[in-house]
Amino acid sequence: MRNTVLILGAAGRLGTSLVLAFASAGWQVIAQARKPLPSAIATLTHVRALTCDAHDRPALLAGGQGAQVVINALNPPYTEWNTLLLPLAEVAQDTALALNALLMLPGNVYNFGHELPELLLEQSGTPEQGNTAKARLRIEQEARMAAAAPRLRSVVLRAGDFFGGIGQGSWFDLALASRIRKGQVVHPGPLNVPHAWAYLPDLAQCFVRVAERHAQLTGHQRLHFSGHTVEGQVLHQALEQAWGRPLKVSHLPWLMIRLGSPFIASWRAIAEMRYLWLKPHRLDDTELRRLIGEPPLTPLVEAMRGSLAALGLAGPKAAIASEALA
Questions:
Q1: What is the mean pLDDT of each run of 10 residues along the chain (326 residues)?
Q2: What are the backbone angles phi and psi of residue 150, rounded to the nearest 5°?
Q3: What global pTM score does this model have?
């Protein structure tokens, strides 16, 4: 029998990457979304759409029968975290309990607060600091998962900022690559500060490899996907290689964002995250390696090229080659 995974939020950016990864690995995928699934995953073999609201507990339980793993890939907009994050997490947790399934959550580095140390350890190795609104919510979400053990088996797979995959809404496409057609890379922080990034196709493959060990996982686990931790200047060079042409350095207009944040909720949410671009940080993945071995990691330039292609951005050399074939 095939392993079965219920992916909540399957139409989102991470959710779509997870569906692709699990289906490619031969899993039966139950893909929950409020709206029709993206065409890239709707017609895949072994994928069954579960069209319902993520708050609909009876529909999730009925549609998720047979799942050994439930992944909470639900991620409301920043401006709605206060009202939606914990209620959605509660539904995901209750669904996994009812199905006797392993619950998996894509975590982030918010838990460590705005004074996060340079090295972020797994399990309880790095203290959590609830000194930002998003940190407090994430700490509470994960604490509820841990408190439900041993009845609930759960894994938080923590990663840095997403890039790549199908869809938009990350720092990569909203900032860095937003002006690449004009020959610029828009950097949110200083070029000499290391920042943790996660290429979504790699992270999704990592979820598959952890999920494959669902039968041996007990209690509550916190694992780290280290991904690419690079300084802004290294990322810039990789983008230049992927684009095929030198690119100018530009910077995010933080002053304008800060001045406008009292009036624009989305700008306020962005301004709250500036500290992540000023504080060097990387994720230690010792426990993850013990569990699955060497994590998947696409070379940085190749990952940049794939990310640009997913956004419909072809570098000058690629464009010239396409014209020559036309």
A1: 93 96 97 93 94 97 97 92 96 98 97 95 88 95 97 98 90 94 97 98 98 96 98 98 97 91 86 94 97 98 96 68 35
A2: -90, 0
A3: 0.94
User: Rounded to an integer, what distance in angstroms lies between the CA atom of residue 290 and that of residue 110?
Assistant: 24
List of E strands, 123-200 = 154-158, 161-163, 184-187, 195-199
C-alpha distances (whole Å) from 63 to each of 3, 51, 98 are: 15, 9, 12
Cα 27 from Cα 208, distance rounded (Å): 9
Give the Cβ contact number of residue 70 at 10 Å.
Answer: 28
Task: Return the closest-CA partner of residue 303 out of 172, 188, 209.
Answer: 172
In this structure, the number of other CB atoms found within 10 A of the CB of residue 168 comes to 11
DSSP bridge pairs for 48: 30
Phi, psi of 28 (to 5 degrees): -80, 125
Which token pair is 42? 């709707």
Q: Tell me, rounded to whole angstroms, the distance of Cα 73 from its chain centroid.
A: 8
